[in-house]
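Possible regression after last week's pipeline update?

I re-ran a chain I had predicted before the update to compare outputs. Posting the input and the new output here so someone can diff against the archived version. Not blocking, just want to make sure nothing changed silently.
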Amino acid sequence: MVKLDESQIPELDAKVDAFVDHVITNSVHSDEFRQNVQSIHNLGTKEIRESAQVSNRMLDLPAKSLNDSLFDNSPIAKSLTELRGIVEDLDPSKKRADQLT
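New output (post-update):
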């Protein structure tokens, strides 16, 4: 997260207001509207991807390695192992199409 200087906030708020006004004045069927929506959609995409990659790398660690650590049989290790199982159960890439609805 980027810490903003208090003096920058009003200027950023004005830019956001201007962008929103611009978007809502365009026809929802126009190319310009589609481009604006796409630019909104793309905000943070890189950061989201990078965060997901870190999470995926953590999930790739064998669950046994969590239990073979200094915290063997600790509540933390047990909770992390349980959480990993829950996350793996929720991973849509491991589900068939008929299970996603």
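Follow-up from reviewer: compared with the archived run. The CA atoms of residues 13 and 73 lie 50 Å apart. Marking as no regression found.
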